[in-house]
Amino acid sequence: MDKKNKNFYITTPIYYVNDVPHIGHAYTTVICDTIASFNKWLDKNVNFLTGTDEHGQKVEKSALKAGIDPQTFTDNVSKSFYKLANKLEINNTDFIRTTENRHKESVRYLWNKLEDNGDIYLDKYSGWYSIKDEAFYSNDEVTENNKGIKVAPNGSEVEWVEEPSYFFKLSSWQEKLLKFYNDNPEFISPRSRYNEVLSFVNNGLEDLSISRTTFNWGIQVPKNNDHIIYVWLDALTNYISALGYPNKNSHDWKSFWPANIHVVGKDILRFHAVYWPAFLMAADIAVPKKIYAHGWWTVDGKKMSKSTGNVVDPNYIIDKYGLDQFKYFLLREVRFGQDGDFSEEALIKRVNSDLSNDYGNLAQRVLSFIYKNNEALLPSKGVLSIKDKELIKYMNITKDNIINYMQNYQITNALEELWKVISKSNTYIDEEAPWTLKKTDLKRMNTVLYVLCIIIKNVSLIAINFIPIGANKILDQLSIPEDKRKYRNFDDDLIAGTKLLKPEGVFPRLEIEEK
Ligand code: ME8
Fold first, then answer.
1. Average pLDDT of span 355-379
2. 235 lines ligand 1 (CB under 6 A)
3. pTM for the whole thing?
């Protein structure tokens, strides 16, 4: 691996501070943390960025409604996102806030660069704007809903706006964008989203309004303080301002740009896959390698919204069911990229079947058997049978497949693959029946237990990237030192005679509450 390829940069969207975080935000953050963790595990230098998007009309409106000045308001709400990151125990490198000076300077620099390169002009905007989406919509996109309200295609209310505005010459980037998508078919994932973007750009691009004059909460246009820079131009820049752009000597900027992946929800794909590369190309900056648009979570089949009263607080779910349990459910229940539905019942079912019955049970039955019958000492290897060797070989192939899946961001497939080896190992223990061997063939019993310990160790080495708390506990019980839990420790042998800790169930079964 050359030095540059050893570096890996991943980002979440920066979340609006208009409201408290919910499971949708937690989802993107957990996905990114898992990918970041896996790459660290593979010994890459990982930079993982998250943060909050604090400017714009939507945030200003929320602050006004709360009767608080926008800075105090954003300080408060940003804290709840920061706290959630802690609660999720994510290992982010940085947490950027768009109200920080380092970010504002970077945005102004980028603006000047776009202007110097001839991509910005002053005119007047008249058209539709959705404060909820912080997005402009064309006449063709706007319809009337059954209450007679003008709405965007996603149902967000729009209002008519007429004001002086700076424009970015997006139309002149259409051909270059199309060529770029064509040359880089992996730029947008999943494939269906790639096609969606391609067809949007193929239909023609209009110049983009990139400044507003009817509110104050934002970064002023460098040479014209009457204008506030469009919140999306401001927000997207976070991905480079956090690295120190435009400081050419910044270590992070040199090491981590272009990003390996921006993970976003499908709601904000257009901003990331069309506007962002166009801004970057226009400013002579390299374009990120991938935009991955994941699906949308509903709750009990309905869109989460304050008015429906079904907004799920991740803090509540974590306190009730556990962090690994929450994370595992998010990562496994829905194929990455597709939509999914959240319900506590589905979470309980998933946790009980995969974590308690399959993985937890495998570890518990093997470790407690050794604890009781082998004086808590790791058994010796002895002579491996063909079946033993096959299981170990299968584990190795599984590891390679999982690495391959994770390098292609197929998180759900990776977990499915890991669970296949868990299931095979549960069958193996039933067939080999160490409890019977105890009476007939102690040597063979030891070998079977040894093979199972190797599998449990290696399954857990991989699982620490997805469910770190439980997987690390199992590795503790196996007495694997903390500094021996990397990818490179996969082939480490176990040392016979090592004393094991008293095994304890790591994933207790969850009870379904009576309604
Ligand atoms: O769009 N299901 O911020 P935002 C899945 N500030 N993911 C969800 C979700 C749901 N129901 N709800 C939210 C913004 N998300 C901008 C981004 S980036 C330069 C600026 C996740 O607070 C998903 O990742 O509205 C979505 O894209 C993001 O939160 C939107 O967060």
1. 95
2. yes
3. 0.97
